[in-house]
Design a protein that fits this description.
alpha/beta, Rossmann fold, six-stranded parallel β-sheet, 44% helix, 14% strand, S-2-haloacid_dehalogenase (chains A, B), EC 3.8.1.2 (chains A, B), HAD-SF_hydro_IA (chains A, B), hydrolase (chains A, B)
């Protein structure tokens, strides 16, 4: 099979390390940081699904707003006192995430191969813009695509179609990379070739469709190009 | 405002007590029963959303199959050895749930008021049939509606529309009752009057739309009829 002509990356957890969020949560709420980070993330994703599925997306809110709502819910549920200052400190972590160390190397290798590169993320354009600039990735990405353009979150097909529309390629010629199993699954269902970056040795979703490949870091993206060109 | 002319109930967690599932999980996996029950339930709901949102429902599987898939995932994730016998034992709990004790009384009161009653559930028809018969509620329910008819899980509007279609009433004249906050939210967005049965003093979803009312048991359904007729 020919090598992919474009590679699209999920952002949060895939290109950008969200672990620092848990560290700040632990500083603010000692002993509860991990529980808060997990519930916050779960709720953030749950809210993207609720607003996408209900009434055909009529209740859409940008990712930043859903992230804030999820934080407020998580603190109420865990009975943690979320002052405005603490909320601002935690939310700011989402603006200034560090990139995983192998990112630049992998993106540079893809550019050297002439492969189109991009992000396809639930994040809203402002969040993504700051994250890409902070990580110094601007010159290595041809596309920074936010689902905000279609007001539907992944795994809605309108969200994944942003990638085929932007690249002008059929999904089968595009590799979609995500460290979120549900995202790798949704992209596989959409028709993309997929790499699930399983950084923490988790089981894949049990819905019967595997990703094209599974890897442990972004370096495994390059395995799709080993025998090609 | 006039009293509702029909009351539709969510099934799992609302009419039927899923707590026994956690008890069996704890017997099978001592010290891990609660964690398994929570993850299993979360994953079950997550899977309903993934198959509903992706590719316009093309990956639909009935609730029983998703419940089984979620159990398998949860055991893998928690590193619990799920033998076929254990799987069967846990799945059987979903077939034979007990009803909350106030159910019959509330349904009888509604029938005495001439109110149309029903279930509107993610469960597939077979699961619901067994549960309703086991709980002895068959004679008190005018409708037992499964989202299987439209192959879209709640909170998809096609799922909620089963209730207006079956009753022939506008959503504003129907009370939808759920102990799941996300379900009460989705039903409110759809246009139903809603009661969130908050049995465990949880915070409501932080997405800006409250249910019509909040209660602590199904008895609170009757509060919608206090000043009417």
């Amino acid at each position: 099979m020919a090598a992919p002509r474009a590679v699209l990356f999920d952002a949060y957890g895939t290109l950008f390390d969200v672990y620092s969020v848990a560290l700040v949560a632990e500083q603010l709420f000692p002993g509860q940081g991990q529980a808060l980070a997990v519930l916050w993330r779960d709720k953030q994703i749950e809210y993207t699904r609720l607003v996408t599925t209900s009434n055909d997306g009529a209740h859409y809110q940008p990712f930043w707003a859903l992230t804030e709502a999820a934080l407020r819910f998580a603190c109420r549920k865990l009975d943690l006192p979320l002052t405005p200052a603490r909320e601002q400190q935690l939310m700011n972590q989402y603006r200034h995430l560090s990139a995983f160390p192998e990112n630049r190397r992998v993106l540079q290798a893809l550019k050297a191969l002439g492969v189109v590169t991009g992000i396809l993320s639930n994040g809203d354009p402002q969040m993504l813009g700051v994250a890409v600039r902070s990580a110094g990735l601007s010159d290595l990405l041809d596309h920074v695509l936010s689902v905000d353009a279609v007001r539907r979150y992944k795994t809605h097909p309108a969200a994944y179609a942003l990638g085929t529309d932007a690249t002008g390629l059929p999904a089968s010629q595009v590799l979609f990379v995500s460290s979120n199993a549900w995202d790798a699954l949704g992209a596989t269902w959409f028709g993309y070739r997929t790499l699930w970056v399983n950084r923490w040795q988790q089981p894949f979703e049990a819905l019967g469709t595997p990703p094209t490949r599974e890897g442990s870091s972004l370096d495994d993206v390059l395995s799709f190009f080993d025998t090609a060109s």
